[in-house]
Amino acid sequence: MIKLEKVSKIFGTGVAGLSDINLLIDKGEFVFLVGHTGSGKTTLLRLLIRETLPSEGTIMIGDLDIVTLPQQKIPHLRKKIGVVFQDLKLLMDRTIFENVILPLEIIGFKREEAAKRVEELLEQVDILEHKDKFPVQLSGGELQRAAIARALTLSPDILLADEPTGNLDSKTAFDIVELLSKINQNGTTVIMATHNLDLLKKYSKNRIIALEKGKVIRDQKHAKEDHTEKKAEEKQQETKEQPKKEPEAKLEKTEKKGEKK
Amino acid sequence: MALSYRTMWHHVRRSPYQALAAIFIMALTFLTVSIFTFLILGSQKVIGFFETKPQVTAFFKDDAKQADINSLEQQLQQTGKVSNLKYVSKDQALQIYKEQNKNDPLLLELVTADILPASLEVSTYNIDDLSPIASSLKNVTFVQEVVYQKDVVTTLAAWTDAMRKMGIALIIILACVSIFIMTTIISIKVANKKDEIEVMRLIGATNWYISLPFMYEGMFYGVVGAFIGWIIASGGLLYATPFLETFLKGIPLLPIPPLFYVELLCFELLLAILLGVVSSLLAVRRYLQK
């Protein structure tokens, strides 16, 4: 569903943000993108919504080629991908309800139906009672939930969450990841960038892609695949070697018998 | 659509002084447009009036004999150049004078038929024939004075032409100033909303969706400004109509039909919408290109 081939991003300053990234993320996966600050997690997410273009390589999301996508088709792409931004990007002069309804207003959804959808979402992320409050009146965790609700408004196929647990205490952070897991169970592909390694212990079954200095240094799913592939190869080699070894052994035996005689 | 209106209204309400500045410059532009429209169209009508009037009028001396006048009329008809001849006797002249000054008893008391000269109004098919006819009339012994309207028309035409050029230049300058000021004002608002615009773009808003409230805002300033400018100019003209009617006695120019005011308003509103849209597009384009 998401395919990156030989993707590199070199910034104007000459610094390489990403180098030779090859990734394949299937529909419905929950992927953790881990790495230190500056490892390229945010750059990778920004590439996926065409906020920036790669210096090299191709990026496919479904059948959309992100690199060659015409300017006027970008809004179409962004409606398919929900994003929880690192700095949330909630509009401070609008209430939580107004923030969450914004994507629906953009596509010209009927006000009443949109309001109903927003209330459902706010209930899902458990902040319905705060719908008429302004962002400054909410806690960090509640703001994250509001941002998640806004990202889900258009029922996107993919949800990108950039450090959604960044400034949260561990309990709230687990709650947020739990919420993202539920969203993933409903069929949405979730890519979550984080540097919180404690979270990964609990979610070790999920695919974890580790980035360092713009390169993929570990891809858990691929590691598993590599491991099984190696085993299979070894087995195959053993079975190939077996018929050769038996005649050799027989020959050796007859030679030994002859010597005795 | 309703949301864009709401957003536009927020923009206007949250910075009332900027809104006032934009409306003021638009009102000034459209006041100028209205005034010059009245002046240019009015003076064209005055020229038209003079052009259709008998272009040469010969005023006879008091001792001119009717027989001489009749023979002069025949001579003029025989040239074949004259389209119309109208003899106005002293009594007819008094009637015309009375009709023109019926509201001013003082002027009526002062004048009798004796002091008004009889006259002959001569129109020609071709305007170029007026000059030789005027010259020949001047040489007739019983003619006291010849009034040649061509001079009046030429002078008026020159004035109108100058006024039209000046008006168009002034309107272009003011329209440019309006666009610059409105673009600046809307740019300030766009800059204030930079973060909001960025968020909207990232969550899939099209450029059109982002621009629409700003375009409505530009149109709002334009329409309100045009309406104010039109009200001032039209109100001023209606107020001055009685005075101008006395001043332009005999010229069927005033009062201006109400339909003309409505047509002018419609034209100005269209122009205002255009100016508003151009200004806001110039302001928003810079941010959307990033």
Provide structural commentary.
The complex is a heterodimer of chains A (261) and B (290). With 261 residues, chain A is α/β, with parallel strands linked by helices. Chain A has helices spanning 41-48, 74-80, 96-106, 111-124, 140-152, 170-185, 197-202, 220-260, and strands spanning 2-10, 16-25, 30-34, 56-61, 64-65, 81-84, 158-162, 189-194, 207-212, 215-219. In chain A, a hairpin with a 2-residue loop joins strand 9 (207-212) and strand 10 (215-219). Chain B is 74% helix and 8% strand. Chain B is built from ten helices and four strands, in the order ααβαβααβαβαααα. A four-stranded antiparallel β-sheet of chain B has the order 2-3-1-4. At the A-B interface, helix 2 and helix 3 of A face helix 8 of B.
Write the layout of secondary structure elements.
The complex is a heterodimer of chains A (about 260) and B (about 290).
Chain A: E1 2-10, E2 16-25, E3 30-34, H1 41-48, E4 56-61, E5 64-65, H2 74-80, E6 81-84, H3 96-106, H4 111-124, H5 140-152, E7 158-162, H6 170-185, E8 189-194, H7 197-202, E9 207-212, E10 215-219, H8 220-260
Parallel strand pairs in A: 3-8, 3-9, 6-7, 7-8
Antiparallel strand pairs in A: 1-2, 1-4, 4-5, 9-10
Chain B: H1 2-14, H2 16-52, E1 56-60, H3 66-78, E2 82-88, H4 90-100, H5 105-110, E3 119-124, H6 130-138, E4 143-148, H7 149-192, H8 194-202, H9 207-247, H10 258-288
Antiparallel strand pairs in B: 1-3, 1-4, 2-3
- Major sheet of chain A: order of its strands? 6-7-8-3-9-10
Tell me which oligomeric state these chains represent: heterodimer
- Please state roughly what percent of the residues of chain A sit in beta strands, choosing from under 5%, 5-15%, 15-25%, 25-35%, 35-45% or over 45%: 15-25%
Number of strands of chain A: 10
Kindly report how far apart the N and C termini of chain B lie: 25 Å
- Tell me the β content of chain B: 5-15%
Q: Biggest sheet of chain B: strands side by side, in what order?
A: 2-3-1-4
| Fraction in helix of chain A | 40-55%
- Element-level helix/strand string of chain A: EEEHEEHEHHHEHEHEEH
- The whole-number mean of residue pLDDT values of chain B reads 81
Chain pair sharing the greatest interface: A-B, 19 and 13 residues
